[in-house]
Amino acid sequence: MPNDRPRSRRRLSSYRFGEPGGTVTDTVGQVRRVFLSITFLRWIGPGLIVPVLVLVLTFNGLDLAQVGIVFAVYGATTVLFELPTGGLADSIGRRSVLIMAGILFIALDVLLLVGTTLPVFLLAAFLGGAGRALSSGPLESWYVDRARAIDPSLVLRKDFSTAGVLEGVALLCGALASVGLANLPPGSIAGLSNVLVSALGAAIADGVFVLAVLGTVREPERSRGSIGSAFGEVPAVIRDGVRIAGSRRSIRLLLGTTFGVAVAAVSIETLWQPRYADLLGGPHEAAKIAGLVVAGFALASVVGSALAQHLPGRLADAPGRSAAVALTFSAFGLVAMAASNDPWLLTFSILCVYAFFALSHVLRQELLHEWVPSERRTTIVSVDSLAGQLGNVGASLVLVPIAGATSIATGWLLGAAAAFVASLVVASVRMPTDAERQQIHAGAPADTA
Length: 449
Description:
Blueprint: H1 4-13, H2 28-42, H3 44-49, H4 53-59, H5 64-82, H6 85-92, H7 94-114, H8 118-134, H9 138-150, H10 157-182, H11 197-216, H12 227-232, H13 234-247, H14 249-269, H15 272-280, H16 283-307, H17 313-317, H18 319-339, H19 343-371, H20 377-397, H21 399-405, H22 408-426, H23 434-442
Helix pairs in contact: 2-9, 2-10, 2-11, 5-8, 5-20, 5-21, 6-7, 7-8, 7-9, 7-11, 10-11, 10-16, 13-14, 13-20, 14-19, 14-20, 14-22, 15-16, 16-19, 18-19, 18-22, 21-22
């Protein structure tokens, strides 16, 4: 037994770092550096394009109802590919899936750059949704497998925390770069409008991401299954997730909360840019500050997430009620957004909403993991993600067209209603008792009250 770990280390170090098919790093430090650097590069592109995404669509003549359709296609595609991505990565390799995702992100950026019609943007949404689903998980799985093969006792929490910080920093850097690009003289880069130039920057950033994956992420050869067989596992995954959720009231309530929060979030994500354009005098003026606003969103989310660790006693012991309080304040923030005619007040209100969303997310995730048996944890997390995507699609198809036909303020009031209902739903979710924990791990329907 004492020789197990050295043998594992020699086996890994027999591969040469940088070679395709079977190459891995031979120390945890090398694996960690690859993981963190690829995580950072993954999120620069989104940081560049998110601040101006809706502006790009409306700049090319789409109305809010059509923007909602584009977002709905993106969400529906992500739903379609969300669950099978784990099986696909295990089948053809995590590195291959990351490369596929990066190529789809580049295609999305290019279509946003050159597109002028709804069909082109729908294609962009489909490719981007597929890329988003494919990029969920394979890098983290690669890191855990590689690092744990070298050091089976490695504690992962610190590295995942660092990865989360780098993700936020990358989004912040991308958003600030978007501000700089938007404030260049129009036409100074390839004759592009300052609304579109960020899409070019995102394409370059995503190209760097793909090259970095090609050059640094390596894994041993594995038996290759078919894509069809990976997708064939989806019905069984869904059935298993639905069975567990149906047997536990707390999980059902948490899934319902995720759906409601997603509806509220979509009301912000699809409507804030047109609202700033209204308040500031047009999409070009809005593009100049959109990156700063998104940077503020990222910082507000960091604050909200950090606050979850510093709740006072009663709130810390009752995460369901604390999440309900956070979502109630989010609903108030959405009402303030609807009433605001000042860009500074609007910005402050949105930052508060994002901070409380982030706080509630941490608490809801804690509750979800407490109620899920370890052998079905990934399945239920995927179902939770699916609930959020369904909320995204539903809001994009219903809420956004209503806002387009009435007013942006109406859309935000509907979002506030969704957040408030979600707060009522999650308020009754509590931590399991010791007896219920035993039932959960035994596979029994522990929460029937």
